[in-house]
Amino acid sequence: MALKKLRVFTGNANPALARKIVDHMGIPLSRATVKSFSDDETWVELDDNVRGADVFIIQPTCTPADKHFMELAIMIDACRRASAKRITAVMPYYGYARQDKKVKPKTPITAKAVAVMLEAVGVKRVLTMDLHAGQIQGFFHKPVDHLHAMPVILDDISVKFAKKLAKRKLVMVSPDAGGVERTRAFAKRLDTGLAIIDKRRDKPNESKVMHVIGDVKGKTAILLDDMVDTAGTLCNGAEALMDNGAKEVHACCTHPVLSGPALKRIKKSKIKTLTVSDTIPLSKKAQKCKKIRVVSVAEMIGSAIRCIYEEDSLTSLFA
To answer: Are the CB atoms for 57 and 79 separated by under 8 Å?
Structure first.
């Protein structure tokens, strides 16, 4: 099917990823002016015609989350008012996903509020990746396509650790109880052992490792998580694994939030390498960190956009 009525725009959150996506698809990136006035208000002007078009706006709501969310919302509104046929928000990283439930009587469910606001401005579909809480899909009344970086990370692990896989010296590790299902899926696909780190979190962004469940002695352990924020969970987990006899520790995460003391912790930690995807762009400091490796999800997202545009199934992307 010709891509005549397909338009792919990007905000300022991750234009490098957007360019990789359209390069994979073999189409140009649609033009839009997205800037800020002197008082920091966001201004958007579409430079390409979107009348009757199927529009995809690539914009992870990463740091600064509020600014990037407003860019996305205003771009959606601009496309709706310019008579776009359908508008899909492509959010490789869904900001506020950790605020998915009421933790106290007088607190909001911000992940739901984000969904309400996006639908209010005119979004017709959402394409996202590795939501921190899968139930966020149900916060929308519109279709949500939830991709996983698993195939990309699996391929990377299979190549990088091929010899250890052959000798059955690899073990996949969940850094907490909440990530066991994800880690078990990786262990099953790679035919490796599974271990779990039992931890308790005293307050946000702080965790205390208790003990390791599973056999890691003499093995290469790979910690697996959906995101790395302040890196406390991963670094404490790596130390616990080494204390329990692991030969070496690596980590894989989809979303490199890397806020606060994350980079210092990673540099000082016992983690040999941290593999992340490009859903969020790395800061200049993070790019200089020799432990951090980046794999791209651009091809997967580009394939998903093409499938949605052509009204085809996305099932093959989960293989």
So the answer is: yes
What positions carry a catalytic annotation?
199
Residues 61, 67, 72: CA angle, nearest 5 degrees: 55
Beta bridge partners of 195: 173
- Cβ atoms 103, 71 nearer than 8 A: no
SS3 assignment, position 95? coil
Burial group, residue 72, by CB count within 10 angstroms (0-12, 13-18, 19+):
buried
- The strand ranges marked E within the chain are 6-10, 32-36, 42-46, 54-58, 86-91, 125-129, 144-147, 170-174, 193-203, 206-213, 220-228, 248-256, 271-277, 292-295
What pTM was computed for the model? 0.94
Q: Select from 54, 85, 59 the least CA-distant residue to 70.
A: 59
| Total H helices, total E strands in the chain | 10, 14
Phi, psi for residue 271 in degrees, rounded to 5: -75, 125
Q: Which amino acid is at 14?
A: N
Strands of the sheet with 206-213, listed across from one edge: 206-213, 193-203, 170-174, 220-228, 248-256, 271-277, 292-295
Q: What is the pLDDT of residues 106-140, one digit of tens each?
A: 999 999 999 999 999 999 999 999 999 999 999 99
**CB count in 10 Å sphere of residue 92:** 30
What residues contact 228, with CB distance under 8 A and at least 6 apart? 234, 251, 253, 255, 256, 257, 258, 262, 274, 276
Tell me the per-residue pLDDT of 16-68, one tens digit each, with 9 for 90 and over. 999 999 999 999 999 999 999 999 999 999 999 999 999 999 999 999 999 99
Strand partners, 199: 209
